[in-house]
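STRUCTURE REQUEST FORM
Protein name: ACT domain-containing protein
Source organism: Stephania yunnanensis
Requested output: structure tokens
Priority: standard
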Amino acid sequence: MTLLRRVSSALPKVPEFAKRSVAPSKFPVHPLDAASSSSLVHGVHVFHCPDGVGIVAKLSECIASRGGNILSVDVFVPEKNQVFYSRSEFVFDPLRWPRKDMDEDFRKISESFSAFKSVVRVPDLDPKYKIAVLVSKQDHCLVDLLHGWQDGGLHVNINCVISNHHRGPNTHVGRFLERHEIPYYYLPTSLGDKREEEILTLVQDTDFLVLARYMQILSGRFLENYGKDIINIHHGLLPSFKGGNPSKQAFDAGVKLIGATSHFVTEELDAGPIIEQMVERVSHRDNLQSFVKKSQSLEKQCLTKAIKSYCELRVLPYKVNKTVVF
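Status: completed
Returned output:
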């Protein structure tokens, strides 16, 4: 993964600034009357092009000329490669700046700077990402994801939930899925049959997959045939304590910092580019039960945060870009 350094979008890009990290620039929103404020919509634009002069100014001018207000801009410059990355958040009135006009405006800027990538997303107007969730026996990540979706905190539609462990219709998860008409598929696996062909059939109409503690290794053939991103949650900070019962392994070893890592799935086990990580301190006052509870809490928070980052373009799709940027 390419390591990138953050520089302020408000500062000229000269070597002394490129060597240090500063917080994203904040642009104040001009006062708006109540009627116009209620009609404003949030947008995100990600830009990747050869480095040059005037890129930030041109992007800012584009948004401002359409009556939009920039909330923040993150600019990244690689250490040894003269390319430019930015992520802009802004609010705008869709009546003054229709969605199709926005795409055309950013397309023109993309052409003028020979951009490699220019992506704009308006979560409240654009179609939600369609996902499928794969899960094994443990429910904590799945339940947190379902409630986040129900509360509107995740801009996704859940096409289905697939599991290699049975859940009855009278369980908490079963009742939730039935109430919200989310299909649930029980596909028991064995050493000789991971049911991958059936899973591929079920997830054809999805934008990405989420492994919410799915304790099966997906084959390289599955990854190639699916062809889109898969997000996984892993206990701890990779790659410690592999194998069965990792929490007990860590507890018995006297670990003082526990964590969770969300990453893209690649053919190499638990070695895909990292999206999010979270940590928490434990001590001798913790028993195995509290240790596991804290670990599970981190896992579900980290997975939810990773999905939000993906949907809000804080991380570029791995299958398209082969690198994580934001």
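Reviewer notes: The longest strand covers residues 41-50. Residues 12 and 54 are 10 Å apart (CA to CA).
Form closed.
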